[in-house]
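hey
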């Protein structure tokens, strides 16, 4: 046995690793820095279990999403500290207060993404809350979650759709004490690029990084900041780097799809058929409709899909302001709820250059800031700019009228 599934389709979910009782599967890294399962032929007994549990080969039972909502946590602190509206924290709290455990992606001491579990609200907010735009190291957390479930403890497992599908295949049965939360995923970026980005920021800013936050709402939820904090070299002084949405090189490269995992561009999990109980995301394109929507552009709005009867039962107990929407409304907020992002034409050249060009030169060639209109630039750097923009546009009105008249006169003269 050589390949567990087609190489380009492998999501790195590691269901195979968590299922092999002979320790015959090792993790290796490909040229782009993504984890790949590798079979040790000396230990493999050809039982075929790794092929059977792979969700690409044998996807678990999916559920059509039952209801869709936009909304946010009633706790203002939870909402502000979250990447969107705080749905993940509110769902997780119901498991933690019953002495349960919550699994999710965290940045470890080396600021590398890996799945861990927490048992306290402090652990949840300090380690698991907030988006991490890099593929997480799953390790053997599916096995650990299974052990907790068999002990009778409540378990919430969160991750990308392919990771939840991998977990379900490893468990091979339904557990009443399991709650799963996936996200509407744009795609997972390369850990290799993230490592080089951190080194670049450390060198450029002359600091040793201690924390990275991918979604800081300093000025806006919509135009979020990439925030890196660290100690100035050889001192105890703290320094903070803030990369705006349209300017930070890592966010630019991520959203331009240069370094997503290849399987993400042909993802099997981009639909309203879900393998989780809840699906969470940002409700992009939210429109203010009442006084309760005040400051939504700064504080954030969650998208919440309720996929199972288990989730429906929990829904009334969530301390959230929720507004029911249609599934078509939900699809319009996130492309990845309908289809994956296609391969970009520059992806191949990006990785070809990556092997020979220094990272700072890669930024100059592929990850330079986006050119945006003046009003967008103002909104990404400053909070509560709506009234200011109205005044500026009003003051610019005479100039606009003059320009239109000038164009009409020029056409008439021709």
């Amino acid at each position: 046995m050589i390949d567990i599934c087609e190489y380009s389709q492998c999501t790195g979910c590691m269901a195979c690793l968590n299922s092999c009782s002979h320790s015959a599967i090792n993790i290796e890294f490909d040229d782009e820095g993504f984890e790949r399962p590798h079979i040790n032929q000396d230990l493999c007994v050809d039982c075929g279990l790794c092929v059977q549990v792979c969700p690409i080969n044998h996807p678990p039972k999916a559920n059509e999403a039952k209801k869709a909502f936009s909304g946010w946590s009633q706790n203002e602190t939870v909402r502000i500290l979250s990447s969107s509206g705080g749905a993940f924290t509110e769902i997780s709290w119901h498991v933690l207060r019953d002495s349960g455990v919550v699994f999710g992606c965290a940045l470890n001491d080396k600021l590398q993404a890996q799945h861990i579990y927490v048992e306290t609200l402090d652990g949840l907010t300090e380690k698991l809350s907030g988006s991490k735009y890099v593929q997480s190291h799953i390790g053997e957390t599916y096995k650990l979650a299974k052990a907790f479930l068999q002990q009778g403890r409540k378990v919430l497992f969160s991750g990308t759709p392919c990771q939840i599908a991998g977990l379900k295949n490893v468990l091979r049965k339904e557990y009443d004490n399991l709650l799963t939360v996936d996200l509407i995923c744009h795609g997972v970026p390369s850990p290799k690029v993230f490592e080089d980005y951190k080194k670049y920021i450390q060198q450029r800013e002359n600091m040793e990084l201690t924390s990275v936050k991918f979604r800081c709402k300093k000025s806006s939820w919509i135009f979020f900041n990439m925030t890196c904090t660290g100690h100035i070299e050889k001192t105890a002084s703290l320094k903070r780097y803030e990369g705006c949405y349209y300017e930070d090189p890592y966010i630019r490269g991520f959203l331009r799809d240069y370094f997503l995992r290849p399987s993400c561009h042909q993802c099997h999990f981009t639909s309203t058929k879900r393998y989780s109980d809840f699906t969470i995301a940002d409700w992009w394109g939210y429109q203010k409709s009442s006084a309760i929507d005040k400051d939504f552009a700064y504080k954030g709005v969650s998208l919440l899909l309720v996929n199972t009867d288990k989730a429906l039962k929990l829904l009334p107990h969530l301390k959230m302001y929720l507004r029911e929407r249609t599934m078509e409304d939900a699809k319009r907020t996130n492309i990845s709820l309908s289809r994956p992002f296609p391969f970009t034409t520059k992806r191949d050249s990006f990785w070809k250059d990556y092997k020979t060009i220094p990272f700072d030169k890669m930024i100059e060639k592929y990850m330079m800031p986006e050119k945006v209109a003046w009003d967008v630039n103002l909104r990404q750097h400053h909070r509560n700019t709506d009234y200011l923009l109205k005044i500026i546009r009003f003051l610019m009105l005479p100039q606009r009228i003059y320009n239109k008249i000038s164009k009409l006169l020029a056409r008439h003269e021709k």
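The chain is about 35% helix and 20% strand. The radius of gyration is 23 Å.
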